[in-house]
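[Automated response] Your request has been received and processed.

Submitted sequence:
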Amino acid sequence: MAELATAVLFSAGLDSAVLVADEARRGRVHPLYVSVGLAWEAAEIAMAERLLSAPVYVGRVGVLQQLQFTMRDVYPSTHWAVRGLPPAYDTPDEDVYLTGRNLVLLAKAGTWCAEHRVPRIVLGPLAGNPFPDATPDFFAASARALSLGLAIPIDVETPLATMRKSEVIRRGIALGVPLELTMSCMAPKGGRHCGRCSKCRERIDAFREAGVADPTAYQR
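Generated structure:
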């Protein structure tokens, strides 16, 4: 039987790092990073290269595939994600919504998969994700559209969709993921989390809820 090949939408964030390690237990993984022109992408890519050299990934995970799909011609230059000025620490998740985010990622990833004959894409939304492009109906419709439009069966799966971030942290520790080499920040500097954006707050709260010491380097 041929080995299962899976493309993982990978940002070097905590969730996608654990997802790659989990998928690597089942078959060959191709990590895809889709750059769209956001302020934090260079920091994520740098962290991704470090992260993927960790023992938990070596031998089962391919090299990072860096894809481009600009949104700079859609998001205005004043957009907070382009300027690198994210909403404040205690703001709700809805304030960091990026219009079309998963739609764009899946369009690019699906096309890459069709070219490389990879029949499965996974990505890492968690339980409680409030965005319209993170629902089961959206992902099912995306799989149908990609399969029809690219003339190759492509599955789209979200294995972490019933989990909280604290549960993902515990799974990552069990798998041996170096969580200190993950990046979940919208205003990183010098490879360190800002400690002031809502993504950092979400990360800090999740380590606390998991009952695990937070190994993250924060600027504050």
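Summary generated for your ticket: The chain has a mean pLDDT of 96. The chain is about 35% helix and 10% strand.
If you did not submit this request, please reply to this message.
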